[in-house]
Structure formats: C-alpha cells, structure tokens
Design a protein that fits this description.
240 residues, alpha+beta, 7 strands, binds tetradecanoyl-COA
Length: 240
C-alpha cells in the first residue's frame, strides 16, 4: 500500500522535531542529538580525514581526491545523523513512524558511524558513476576486533554490505540487501587499511547483482571476495 508521502513526512517530523524543553515521553534514556530539529542539525561529514587515519589511508585518500578533480570520481559524504536525500526518500515512502518511539528516533544514527574517531569504522567511499563502481577505503579500529589481532568477520561483512550497497544505490536509488555471500580468504589485521573495490555486474528489473573484493593497500593480499543481490524498493509495497 502506498503511504502518503506528505503525511508520512509530517508525522516523522512531528516525532523528530521536538522543541527544546518540551516534555519527553520517558526519561530513562540519555540525552541524544535529534535527527531533524530545525534548531540543531549535525552536519559533520564523517568521510573526511581525522587524526586517527594512518599514513597509508591519508595517501590513498589524497590520490582519490585527485581523481575527483576531473569529475570522473566523486567522494560520497557520510553523515551520522543528518539524512541524505536518499534516506529522506526511504523514510518518506517506507517507514511507519509509529513503530519507533520518540526518544528512540532521537537516538537514531548510522551504525557504521557510531564510534569515536579511530575506534570503529573509519572509511570513505568514492564512486565512479559512469563505470558503476565504487572504491571504499576502510580502516577497522580496535573496537572491531574478533580473533585477537584481527578484524571481526561481522565488521568486515558490514563494510562489504555498505560498499556494495553504496555502489548499488548509484543506478538503483533506494535499495536493500537481499543476499550477501562472502568468502573470507585471509584475516584482516586490526587497524590496517583495506581497499574494497565494488562493481555492478548485472541489472535485471529491480534486481542489482554486485561483486567486490577486499585487498591490502599494496594489492598483494586478497582478504575477501563477495557478491550481493540488492533490490530496488517498490514504493507500492510496504516493508512491514
Ligand atoms: C537508502 C538509504 C541510503 C542511506 C545511505 C546509507 C548508505 C549505507 C549503506 C548501508 C547498506 C546496508 C544495507 C542494509 O543493511 S539492508 C538491511 C538488510 N536487508 C533487509 O533487511 C532486507 C529484508 N528483505 C526485504 O525487505 C525484502 O525481501 C526485499 C525488500 C529485499 C525484497 O522484497 P520486495 O517485496 O521488494 O521484492 P520481491 O520479494 O518481490 O523480490 C523481487 C525480486 O527479487 C528476488 N529476490 C528477493 N530476495 C531474493 C533473495 N534473497 N535471493 C534471490 N532473489 C531474491 C525475487 O525472487 C524477485 O525476483 P523476480 O521474481 O522479480 O525475478
């Protein structure tokens, strides 16, 4: 069933745009930044270098920024709280505001950006729209450890999903992961930098088939290979 865009958006704004001092429904949660308050919006772009980035990471970042100069490549900004147009559309079409309580909505943030600088997922994604591919530079911090000394497989899977999903979103717009297959070939040392190369292999109606590989910066080590199926969401269908 197609929900009314404006009604959905209005209710979401009503939930998120609570004014300073207005009563909360519950007080047992710590204060958290609000999502869409017109008074206080957090605009920080988390895909820019910070002091935790290693020398390798910064070097690669600079190389890709150079590639962006002629317009063939583009750095994708990444926000913890502020929504991109795509995620706005997502909410407008597919979210039922009543499912999430007000204080929970105010705590919502992007999973991969929920850590302090350097401790979790440090990454930036560059996209080449003509070639329908992306490159994700990723440094997994100390809070992402699995087997001692190495990155947790789930953290790697998260970044693969994010990289493939961002690549799928170039032609697909609002997409969701339907299937993800990963071959873990070598463990990734904690705090090291890896490069995730993703590409769109096939587009079949609403289905987008993608693949990626995860390599060391010197390209000598192949850490993982993965394929993913992403589905372009149908605004006529409810997700719940
Ligand atoms: C967008 C926001 C952007 C924000 C920016 C942040 C970027 C960060 C990126 C973060 C990234 C994080 C990303 C995340 O965390 S996404 C979160 C994890 N994923 C989910 O929770 C998805 C759960 N699944 C669903 O909701 C539905 O199944 C979806 C929506 C995917 C499809 O349900 P829908 O009702 O719409 O479609 P359909 O069922 O008619 O199927 C359509 C076609 O697809 C085929 N099919 C379906 N499933 C499979 C399957 N498993 N293998 C093989 N084929 C499959 C199916 O046979 C059919 O084919 P055909 O008969 O037409 O040939």
């Amino acid at each position: 069933m197609l929900r009314s865009c404006t009604a959905g958006l209005r209710s979401l704004w009503a939930l998120c745009g609570r004014r300073e001092g207005a009563p909360r429904l519950s007080t047992d949660l710590p204060p958290a930044p609000r999502l869409f308050s017109t008074e206080k919006v957090i605009h920080k772009d988390w895909s820019l270098p910070n002091p935790s980035w290693s020398k390798d990471f910064k070097l690669l970042f600079d190389q890709f920024m150079k590639k962006c100069e002629d317009g063939s490549w583009e750095r994708l900004p990444s926000y913890k709280h502020r929504s991109t147009q795509k995620s706005e559309d997502f909410k407008t079409y597919f979210l039922e505001p009543k499912l999430v309580k007000e204080e929970r909505v105010s705590q919502v943030q992007l999973f991969t950006r929920g850590f302090e600088d350097g401790l979790g997922f440090e990454y930036v994604i560059f996209s080449n729209n003509d070639e329908k591919r992306t490159v994700c530079l990723f440094q997994g911090g100390p809070y992402l450890q699995g087997i001692p000394g190495f990155l947790h497989g789930g953290a790697m899977a998260t970044m693969i999903d994010t990289a493939l999903g961002s690549c799928a979103a170039i032609p697909g717009g609002i997409v969701m992961t339907a299937n993800l297959n990963i071959n873990f070939k070598r463990p990734v040392p904690i705090c090291s930098v890896v490069v995730i190369n993703s590409q769109l292999d096939k587009l079949e109606g609403r289905k987008l088939f993608l693949s990626c590989n995860v390599r060391s910066v010197d390209e000598k080590t192949l850490y993982s290979e993965a394929t993913g199926l992403f589905i372009k969401l149908d605004p006529e269908k409810s997700l719940t």
